[in-house]
């Protein structure tokens, strides 16, 4: 394997887009072909990706619609949501076929309350099997979106979310094994926001000033259709809430931005051109205290919450959010506005860590010895839903040391279902600012290792942990744990 092939496997970072050359295109096509599993899941050869000609900051950034419940009581909210094909507007003047939740390319946002149960009935109107994983949620195994628990075409499945966790920015997406990367690429992703009373008392920016922002990349063919392949270097178009390099009109006051990297395989290096952003939360909710940042790393599936105070800019100013040196989103300060929100010095303390009694080693990597197609492996073995890799006693606190076992250039992210975790060490030293707080996904660069700790509290059953570069998990980089009595 040459350097370019390894770079493609390792993902795209910091706005540096790798374009295939003629001499490597055939090799890359073979490298990133879907893994054969008895049938092709309806896949055909991907179209050749082209870079759309779209002017910077020429379209407004939309806000995802908020899903209305069909039943709303004090103890429960019930939703219905169709998973269906739709023609959506991503590029100006073009309708693009997509897989959607409810007909929108960014699925509708579900706003939940801590302690109030949410039940969602999903009906699959696609011509392919799918399922739904609520990423970051503490739920029973039957509602986790296990990769083999599929909603067949025409079928319906009910997911039960108790929301017995603190306020946090979660998201829901497809998790059907071998097809998760393609299905999320085609649009099966949306926000799920848990709010709690303790957080509301802090008077952080709220309402219209609390804005979810989904960042991802995409590849299009000459007709404006999404062009899927397992090669992330073809995904040359960056989308913010489903639009290429949009603008967003803001008032000269504080905003809370909930940022999600939903790209299948990309690491973002976010900045406001050197201006200060105040981080208040990570994957699992609020940090103990706000942290001023001028840049941050956000890998696939990670979330971060920032407060940006636009009152320091005069009306008429433009402020640009970038990935490295690549512009993503322009904030246009268009008016003044009253502001009684604040960022308090203390947010939410983290609980003391219990003593760990089990220590495990986990490695992520590829097996390059099986021919033209690499196989994703965890601890040297590809995913097998008939095999349990770790049996974990309920109530146990464990430390996992997770390493990137791949050669030069190949990076990964690690995601654990069921439980949030805390990062104890990175590469044998202190965690970085990007590791702070309660996490469920963590970036592991070349030669890197991350030590995490978590307690498996109450639910029993089988759950997965995997690389959240979905191209990698689709190729087998996933394993299974069973929580037992």
UniProtKB/TrEMBL annotation:
<dbReference type="Pfam" id="PF07731">
    <property type="entry name" value="Cu-oxidase_2"/>
</dbReference>
<feature type="domain" description="Plastocyanin-like">
    <location>
        <begin position="84"/>
        <end position="198"/>
    </location>
</feature>
<keyword id="KW-0560">Oxidoreductase</keyword>
<protein>
    <recommendedName>
        <fullName>Multicopper oxidase CueO</fullName>
        <ecNumber>1.16.3.4</ecNumber>
    </recommendedName>
</protein>
<dbReference type="InterPro" id="IPR006311">
    <property type="entry name" value="TAT_signal"/>
</dbReference>
<dbReference type="InterPro" id="IPR008972">
    <property type="entry name" value="Cupredoxin"/>
</dbReference>
<keyword id="KW-0479">Metal-binding</keyword>
<dbReference type="InterPro" id="IPR011707">
    <property type="entry name" value="Cu-oxidase-like_N"/>
</dbReference>
<dbReference type="InterPro" id="IPR045087">
    <property type="entry name" value="Cu-oxidase_fam"/>
</dbReference>
<dbReference type="Pfam" id="PF07732">
    <property type="entry name" value="Cu-oxidase_3"/>
</dbReference>
<dbReference type="InterPro" id="IPR011706">
    <property type="entry name" value="Cu-oxidase_C"/>
</dbReference>
<feature type="domain" description="Plastocyanin-like">
    <location>
        <begin position="374"/>
        <end position="482"/>
    </location>
</feature>
<dbReference type="InterPro" id="IPR002355">
    <property type="entry name" value="Cu_oxidase_Cu_BS"/>
</dbReference>
<comment type="subunit">
    <text>Monomer.</text>
</comment>
<comment type="similarity">
    <text>Belongs to the multicopper oxidase family.</text>
</comment>
């Amino acid at each position: 394997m040459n350097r370019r092939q390894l770079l493609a496997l390792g993902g795209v970072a910091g706005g540096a887009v790798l374009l295939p050359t003629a001499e490597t295109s055939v090799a890359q096509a073979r490298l990133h072909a879907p893994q054969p599993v008895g049938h092709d899941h309806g896949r055909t050869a991907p179209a050749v990706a082209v870079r759309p000609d779209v002017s910077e900051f020429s379209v407004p950034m939309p806000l995802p619609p908020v899903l209305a419940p069909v039943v709303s009581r004090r103890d429960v909210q019930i939703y219905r949501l169709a998973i269906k094909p739709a023609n959506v507007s991503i590029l100006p003047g073009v309708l693009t076929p997509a897989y959607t939740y409810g007909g929108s390319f960014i699925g509708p946002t579900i706003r939940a309350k801590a302690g109030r149960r949410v039940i969602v009935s999903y009906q699959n109107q696609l011509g392919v099997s799918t399922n739904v994983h609520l990423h970051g949620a503490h739920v029973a195994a039957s509602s986790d979106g296990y990769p083999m628990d599929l909603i067949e075409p025409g079928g319906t499945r009910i997911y039960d979310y108790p929301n017995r966790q603190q306020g946090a920015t979660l998201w829901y997406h497809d998790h059907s094994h071998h097809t998760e990367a393609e299905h999320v690429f085609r649009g099966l992703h949306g926000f799920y926001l848990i709010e709690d009373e303790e957080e509301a008392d802090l008077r952080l920016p709220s309402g219209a000033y609390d804005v979810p922002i989904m960042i991802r990349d995409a590849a299009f063919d000459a007709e404006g259709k999404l062009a899927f392949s397992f090669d992330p270097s073809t995904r040359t178009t960056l989308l913010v809430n489903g639009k290429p390099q949009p603008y967003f009109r803001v008032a000269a006051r504080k905003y809370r931005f909930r940022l999600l990297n939903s790209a299948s395989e990309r690491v973002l290096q976010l900045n406001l051109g050197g201006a200060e952003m105040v981080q208040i939360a990570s994957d699992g909710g609020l940090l103990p205290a706000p942290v001023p940042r001028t840049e941050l790393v956000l890998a696939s599936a990670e979330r971060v919450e920032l407060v940006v105070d636009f009152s320091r800019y005069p009306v008429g100013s433009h402020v640009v959010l970038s990935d490295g040196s690549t512009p993503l989103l322009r904030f246009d300060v268009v008016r003044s506005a009253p502001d009684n929100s604040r960022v308090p010095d203390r947010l939410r303390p983290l609980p003391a860590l219990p003593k760990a009694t089990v220590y495990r080693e986990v490695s992520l990597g590829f097996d390059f010895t099986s021919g033209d197609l690499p196989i994703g492996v965890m601890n040297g073995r590809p995913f097998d839903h008939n095999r349990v890799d770790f049996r974990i006693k309920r109530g146990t606190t464990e430390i996992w040391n997770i390493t990137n076992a791949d050669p030069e250039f190949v990076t990964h992210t690690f995601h654990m279902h069921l439980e949030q975790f805390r990062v104890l060490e990175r590469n044998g030293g202190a965690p970085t600012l990007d590791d702070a707080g309660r996490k469920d996904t963590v970036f592991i660069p070349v030669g890197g290792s991350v030590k995490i700790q978590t307690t498996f509290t109450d639910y029993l059953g089988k759950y997965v942990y995997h690389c959240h570069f979905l191209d990698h998990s689709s190729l087998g980089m996933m394993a299974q744990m069973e929580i037992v009595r």
